[in-house]
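Minutes, project check-in
Item: structure for the 376-residue chain
Input as provided by the requester:
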Amino acid sequence: MYTNLVFIGYIIAMFLSLLCLTLILVVLAGKDFGKERPFSGRTFTCRSGTGCRAAAGIFAVTIFLTGVLYFIFYYRETVQNQFELALPFRVADYVLCCLLPFTWLLLLRQLTDSEKNGDLLKAASSFTITRMAVSIAVTYRFMGPYYEIEMGEARNLWHMFQIFFISGALFLLIRYGIYGIQAANSPLKRRYIIICTVLLAAMDIEQSFIEMGLAEGKYGISAWALEVPDMTGTIVFLLSLATLLFVFKEDFSPLFFRETPESVSESQVAAACSGELPGADALGTVREQEAAQEEHKEATKQKQLDLLAERYGLTAREREVMELVYEGYTNPEISQELYISVNTVKKHLQHTYEKLGANSRMEVLRLINEQNHPPG
């Protein structure tokens, strides 16, 4: 009964992680990875945030593969009654356990634009490579098909390595998490960072102690058959749920790209690309109408932004930052555009959020759009 319940939990966790991965891939595909698309002498560009979206995609892929691997393990036991795990399965298990916290650190670096933790990321890279190499070597040389290590000296050495790896992983997760919380520019990011850091730390501790028990032969051919508590499925589910909600709500998912002019329809774009628009005069008229509507649209936007800034008491610099946020600029791009540091950008954003009563860029855009298109 216990094994069946855990098996069902892994099915749900795998489905949710697949949904999360699909959402991120749709976001990436929808932005064309920042490529340019020409139309009648002009260029429509996608604002990049690609590094952040790609890091989220890598993290989601690792979560999904972890869920799939443990689903396979459970399926083999519950349906096929196969308890032995071949070397590739055991290697994949250790590789994913090492990669999951590391891909989280990569995403955390992108989320916070933190410059402090560059050295920590290098240390995390070296630590992860070392951990994977040692795990694969021990698995290949000493482990049996049930993760047991019969040689006493090798088993004791493995326990020492596991304790070292647990300590190192916890240090990196907690230290990086603290930097991320300090550098995050919205409560939503802080909550997401705290949730994922705690979940990954708990998963690393649990997995390491189970692996040490398996190495001693403490659980026989199956820890699940002995109903040893296994939180991995629950953690995979919660990581997927948190990431799914965050990608849906936070700024990097829908906002880092420029819109095409409203005056140009999809049929006009297709016709222009295929050379079907009638004559140079007609095309010139379209361009003139385009330019006039763009000027009107820009003037309207500036007026509404000024009204919003006046209503909420934004400073001139905060108003500039808000406009660039509206146009889809990332923090580093705002920094370059205004010739200020990324940390200063974050401070202006934080003050802007507080004055507007917003928690993310999405909510800032909603406020601006309500100014441009008031209800009723």
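Outcome recorded: The chain has two domains: 2-249, 268-372.
No further action items on this chain.
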